[in-house]
Amino acid sequence: NAGVTQTPKFQVLKTGQSMTLQCAQDMNHEYMSWYRQDPGMGLRLIHYSVGAGITDQGEVPNGYNVSRSTTEDFPLRLLSAAPSQTSVYFCASSNLAGGFPDTQYFGPGTRLTVL
Amino acid sequence: QQQVKQSPQSLIVQKGGISIINCAYENTAFDYFPWYQQFPGKGPALLIAIRPDVSEKKEGRFTISFNKSAKQFSLHIMDSQPGDSATYFCAARGSGNTGKLIFGQGTTLQVKP
Asked: Of A47, B7, B95, B113, which sits 20 to 30 A from A102 (CA to CA)?
């Protein structure tokens, strides 16, 4: 199993550009989520999904969109990039136990710089 | 407000020493407290986790101590090794309808040989 994969590993954008960060998992996990990691702030939840066709907002959803058309894929779209979105982005997946996410498996991350 | 406060921000320990990282939370509805370990350039990985019905959990050199009344939990790394040098995050999961994980700010641990 490849686990959770993310592409690209690195990306530089100009302010106002849009792009999609890709995330895929091959563990048949129902729950998938996107976090951003900034120095001194830990990981903050952007959006999450409990299954195909179901998504919801996390702590910091503004400026990001997600969709979940399949169990395996959970792309994150930046609509109009801003310097404040410079961060490292992690995708994670987990089973649901009793309706709640169990152990989360993280991808290797995408380091995004917005100029 | 759901918050998890982690301290210290950074920690330097000699090889063989004990590393202690502390976390405090406010929401009594949290039902699951994992610790994640992250090496540079990698994603976080689950290290050890505890539920609030036990006061301690040990896995090898890693121990979680949980104090429900004080709303605090801590990670102890016994016989710390240079290979333990990493960033550690505590987290808490809400027991509400989403079960979202709330992470602490992270602690960068350096174990000196």
From this structure: B7
Backbone angles phi, psi at A72, to 5 degrees: -80, -30
Would you call A99 and B42 a contact, using CB atoms and an 8 Å cutoff?
no
Note whether B80 and B18 are within 8 A (CB): yes
Q: What is the DSSP string of B6-54?
A: EE-SEEEEETTS-EEEEEEE--TTEEEEEEEEE-TTS--EEEEEE-TT-
For residue A42, give the nearest of B101, B110, B28, B96 by alpha carbon. Answer: B101
CA within 13 Å, CB half, A18: 8
- pLDDT tens string A56-95: 999 899 999 999 999 999 999 999 999 999 999 999 999 8
Residue by residue, DSSP assigns A21-57 as EEEEESS--SEEEEEEE-TTS-EEEEEEEEETTEEEE
Q: Which residues on adjacent β-strands are paired with residue A20?
A: A77
CB contact under 8 A, A100 and B49: no
Neighbours of B20 (CB within 10 A): 16
Tell me, what amino acid is at B108? T
Interchain proximity A100–B6, CB inside 8 Å: no
Q: How far is CA A106 from the centre of its chain?
A: 10
- Upper half-sphere CA count for residue B104 (Cβ side, 13 Å): 30
Tell me the mean pLDDT in the region B57-62.
96
